[in-house]
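To whoever is on call:

I kicked off a structure prediction for a single chain this morning and the downstream step that reads the tokens threw a length-mismatch warning. I double-checked the sequence; it's 344 residues and nothing unusual in it as far as I can see. Pasting both halves so you can look.
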Amino acid sequence: MKRRELLALAGVLPAWAQAADSSMTLPGMDLHDPFIVTDTASKTYWLFTKNHPSFSGQKAIGVMAYSSRDLKHWNKPELVFQLPAGTWANDGCWAPEVHHWRGKWYLFVTVHNESLPLAQPSPVPGQKTYRRSTVLAVADQPNGPFTLVRDGEPVVSKDLMTLDGTLYVDPAGKPWMVYAHEWLQLRVGAFAAVPLDDELRATAPPRELFRGSASPAAKPQQGQGIIVTDGPQLYRTADGSLHMLWSSWGEDGYFQTLSRSRSGDLFGPWEHLPVWLAKGSGHGMLFRTLEGGWMLVVHRPFKNARGKLYDVRERSNAFEILRQRIDLDLDSAPVPPATQKIGH
């Protein structure tokens, strides 16, 4: 390792000197479904997304990770997971998420194989059902390399079209995977949760949380009654209420919204709040900065997506978007929040 790199890792170089080695900013980083891990030990942000060979230099179906010290200057991404040959899946690696659990780092990622049809036909004319599932991989460090767990066995039944799995740990310390149940199989997409053991294996059948139609903001698409659900993320505020950040399609295109369980329980009852961020914004997640504040990252637009950053404030029972950080994401067409505050 070069002396400059060693000094940067040790935090000896000033911010401007560290940034000099970084050659990318968010407008030049093609990414979908961004997920950011804040590694306080190394003072590094890791941004995970599906592998793009033109960016990582690695031709693989997998996951790549950008790294940054300041959320503005990003290093060229590295391939951190590659879908092994011989597994049932042959495409995807959508919506990668990395979570710390019992001393290890687990990658949740969605893969599929359109040549493996499911017995249950799609209720949507002209569509088909096929194997699509969230699988797990594990590593010792947040930036991998990640190794496939249980040979790519899906967390829930292979007969269910599932995607965008996320780890949720309840107040008793019990892990769950919350995920989207695909509209291709239901017409009206849903969110569900499956209980896990300490090895992150399912211990019981999944239970549905709610359908996308429960939110007044989600509108049927394509004249076929389709309602999309994707990108669930779960966060608890100081009053103990549980919030789910998720995305769908509405009158203003792809959007980011929140639902809230006032009971604090994963199974609600859930109330569905107004659109939080619109105009093609979605599949976001909240993360803590190195300074301890909350930020939101989303992608926008849906096609040819780029990462966008927003400052967020946590109140006793609500999250509030304060402003878009155009000083960091360099967005030439910033989008204000659809509502200034979520909650009462």
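Update from on-call: the warning came from a stale cache, not from the record. Cleared it. Sanity check on the structure: Residues 33-329 form a domain with the Tachylectin-2; Chain A fold (CATH 2.115.10.20).
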